[in-house]
Amino acid sequence: MEEIHAKSSNVRSVLLKGIFDILKCHGQNVFCEAEDREVTFIDFLDDILSQSRDDTEERDIIVKGIFKIYTAHHTWSPRILSKLLMLLYHPDENYSVRKYVNCFLQTYGHSREEVECLVKSFLAIINLLFDSDKSSPYHNISIKTTALELVEFSKEYEHSEEFSFKEKFQDLLVLKLTKGFLKKPWRLSALDLYNICSGIMPKDHEKLLKLKENIKII
């Protein structure tokens, strides 16, 4: 990345496009000499995303490039995907990036692996919002609004006829929000918690309690 940043803007754009074309085809196999190719691959994507500059064209190339890696099934990392999805809520993010995120959400989530990745990413977004301090650009983002939007996104696959999950996203979200509220009630009011959960809380409360005991994702 340091070598790329040292180049002019036009050269960086060409290099980045070439890098993502290679990664889309070969994925983590590019790092064949690494001891743990998957970890190295994820760290690389994290680095290239976090160090992307304010240049709109460069930012677009990086975001589109990483999304293509996901659709090519070269990674299932919720760590990177949650950061990409958070761009939808970043107050300073440009319109084109938000458009890419929305397009991705409309086309991703048609297999069990994709849905599992989305669920973990959605829950990671809630974590990020609860943990954001006053210096974070996400501090003023409404957890209630975001949670309700994630519920809407999840409806695309929550009742899929092709596959089902023992743990539904909405149940996991209830547990995640409740835990966040108990730890940091100043980040989410009791009224907002009620307004979110009242519409998605399962009728079988015992099921939710058992889920809390068994699931490690929360």
TrEMBL record:
It is found in: Chromosome. Keywords: Cell cycle, Cell division, Chromosome, DNA condensation, Mitosis. Residues 8-160 form the Nuclear condensin complex subunit 3 C-terminal domain. GO terms for cellular component: condensed chromosome; condensin complex. It holds the Pfam family Cnd3. GO terms for biological process: cell division; mitotic chromosome condensation. The keyword Cell division applies. This is Condensin complex subunit 3. It comes from Stegodyphus mimosarum. The lineage of its organism: Eukaryota, Metazoa, Ecdysozoa, Arthropoda, Chelicerata.
